[in-house]
């Protein structure tokens, strides 16, 4: 199967996930509609004041984070491969009387559909594992950033993706720097493990070195890389909730989350012409 067919398999799965996720406690749409933000402490601290900022949200699903930022006064554009997710995002945008824009495309093709440049480009929690190669992804991010703008990612740590979670207990099965696609087929989804839907997914592992190098090679300057024991989401087996209300491994053998911020400076812009 070629990459285009793998992307199509993933798109179909994400389309099937949308109604399941929209009805789930995980996404809590009822309280979101009442004004609850979907953003977590990591990204909130990284963003700072966003009012008036132009933000591009990559792989936005049905747009809760995009719309949460729009509620805070940012001018937001969300991108996702799932047409059903973008359809729901647009419905929520209209219902909540916000002014976010949503575009349905493969994230790697974003520059073909979005010509604006942004103060912030953002992606979070379970996104880069859907991409076979981070170099075109990083190049697109550089293209869409204004000089002085920054890219921010908060993501599950690549060590966590070395395990096969379809078996119990999870088995360390996949390479930290594995290049081959990983195919999984299982019933349910992280937001509703009891759902009858069948998830068919192709994913790719990316080391921290690959993330950093791809962004640096695209002309971005790494400001920081942080690793954290605690995840806002209880999606891995055996996690416990700590006193701060986030989830961590009892033995803390490896981090669950990393966050990275990278800046586009003016010399990068000059090199593009």
From TrEMBL:
One of its GO terms (biological process) is methylation. GO terms for molecular function: S-adenosylmethionine-dependent methyltransferase activity. Residues 57-153 form the Methyltransferase type domain. This is Methyltransferase type 12. It comes from the Bacteria. Keywords: Methyltransferase, Transferase. SUPFAM superfamilies: S-adenosyl-L-methionine-dependent methyltransferases (SSF53335). InterPro entries: Methyltransf_11, SAM-dependent_MTases_sf.
